[in-house]
Amino acid sequence: MATKPLSMSLFPFSLPHKLRNPNPNLLQTIHLKRPILIVCKSTPQLPAEAHQTSPIAQPEVQGTGAAAPTRGELFLERHQSVAASALVLNTDKNTKKKKKKKKESISDSLRISTGVASCYGCGAPLQTLEKDLPGYVDSETYELKKHRQLRTVLCGRCRLLSHGHMITAVGGNGGYSGGKQFVSAEELREKLSNLRDEKALIVKLVDIVDFNGSFLARVRDLTGANPIILVVTKVDLLPKGTDFDCLGDWVVEVTMKKKLNVLSVHLTSSKSLVGIAGVVTEIQKEKKGRDVYILGSANVGKSAFINALLKMMSQKDPVAAAARKYKPIQSAVPGTTLGPIQIDAFLGGKLFDTPGVHLHHRQAAVVHSEDLPVLAPKSRLRGQSFPKFQAISGIMTAGDIRLNGLTGFSLFWGGLARIDVLKALPQTCLTFYGPNSLKVHVVPTDQAEEFYQKEIGVLLTPPTGKQRADQWIGLQTERQVHIKLDDKERPACDVAISGLGWITVEPVNQSLGIAGSNDEEITEELILSVRVPKPVEVFVRSPMPVGKTGGEWYQYRELTEKEAELRPKWYF
């Protein structure tokens, strides 16, 4: 028996659409016998008054899919809303106090945007009431720009900063003396508290001149488990002849001890754009649709780095070229950025400049605002090595040093630090790396206190001037540093002073021309006493290989296969 075609053996419902139904009455019968479910929904009749009332406003739909706000936009809006609310509450308190003297109309109340309306230079919410507060703009400018152009508005404080004025804004723990202060360091840190819960890529900046002081010891509290690209800034300031192969290895070795999720390490200079292209490539590779946050301590160079980043990206990306028109303000004042600043630098995710984390243990926390530019090196570092065979301040002679070396002498680094050499070899050499404008003065230890009280604010600066010297807190903290001499042919260690620079300790420097002692007299330990202002910290670390001789004595550590696999790569 021949097999029937498939279409002929099926139920009539399965017939091809081109064939006619052989039995129309059959289909009609089947349709009539199928039960039909009817659902009725009754609506109660509203009274006539209800029809006259206005409908309840529905919440604005933020969009879905590609139109949905990113995590970064929600993060920015949340923090600016909190800042706006706090500002309104403070204004209400002041208004109640002045209510008995003068009644203010509703039209004079604070106008502030609770959305994303903020100064593109510092991130402070825009407002039109308090002229001294960050984010102030005049009423005419606000009214003119309030519809669609508020992101192009620069506040009055940023205009002054752009012209070189030292306008302080951050006070409290981690702030600095001098000037009017409106925001505490704790409030700025609080704005970054939710960053650990975001899915983001962190670009963390560290100042090579103040590596330990600017590293952020509790950075994991801010970043959580988010991946980190470590960017070392200002490498163009290092002494001439520095071997960057040795320097990169040194940075990675120190970073590995922090146990962070570091993807890569980059040695960069925002001024000369050295290493910036490598950071751009790494960000594009690791971004993966996430928002990118620039994180670092105050005055580490975040705004300068972002400007360099946009300059490099704008060569091939028109989006970054457009973002360069409204870039963050650069200033020597720590705390220039007061809120998250959103920058449309690329497609697929946003770039955010964040407020600098203020650290109370840096010199910037105690120095007057007018003296802050002195702490920022402007040219390549030139190490100041001691002893030097010349009379200093009419107190010491070359013969005293040729006999005993630096033992029994004190070295003043401006008015910010004092190093007493309690025990050292005759050939021991101390080399100071920091701002070239800060001079080092050497006096006998028994005359050091008298010399300091007489010359502070005059010869020992900063603080600059007698008026600031009278308000100076002094060198209240003393730390003794014991240095073991394992290898006299290479530097023993660096003594780093947070926010200032570092001192390289060389046990034996043959170039000094000082005759060595007998083997019985050679000490196995150096003892230094370091005095700094009370909150400032002193770090003892492995010596940083800088200068022409750094590549000669630096030793690479042998790595296991597992260490070589987990170790982040560095780029220059």
Describe the protein's architecture and organization.
- The protein is α/β, with parallel strands linked by helices and 572 residues long.
- It contains 17 helices and 19 strands.
- It has helices at 6-9, 24-33, 48-52, 71-97, 139-145, 156-162, 185-190, 219-223, 244-256, 276-286, 302-313, 318-323, 398-404, 448-455, 466-470, 550-553, 561-566, and strands at residues 170-171, 183-184, 200-207, 228-233, 262-267, 291-295, 341-343, 351-353, 384-386, 409-413, 417-423, 429-433, 440-444, 477-484, 493-497, 501-506, 525-532, 538-541, 569-571.
- The strands form 4 sheets. The chain has a 7-stranded mixed beta sheet with strand order 7-8-6-3-4-5-19, with helices on both faces.
- α10 packs across α11 (302-313).
- The longest helix has 27 residues, at 71-97.
Defining key terms:
5-stranded antiparallel sheet, 572 residues, globular, alpha/beta, disordered N terminus, 16% strand, 7-stranded mixed sheet, single chain
Quick recap of the structure?
The chain has 572 residues and is α/β, with parallel strands linked by helices. Helix content is 25%, strand content 16%.
Topology:
Elements: H1 6-9, H2 24-33, H3 48-52, H4 71-97, H5 139-145, H6 156-162, E1 170-171, E2 183-184, H7 185-190, E3 200-207, H8 219-223, E4 228-233, H9 244-256, E5 262-267, H10 276-286, E6 291-295, H11 302-313, H12 318-323, E7 341-343, E8 351-353, E9 384-386, H13 398-404, E10 409-413, E11 417-423, E12 429-433, E13 440-444, H14 448-455, H15 466-470, E14 477-484, E15 493-497, E16 501-506, E17 525-532, E18 538-541, H16 550-553, H17 561-566, E19 569-571
Parallel strand pairs: 1-2, 3-4, 3-6, 4-5, 5-19, 6-8
Antiparallel strand pairs: 7-8, 9-12, 10-11, 10-13, 11-17, 12-16, 14-17, 15-16, 15-18
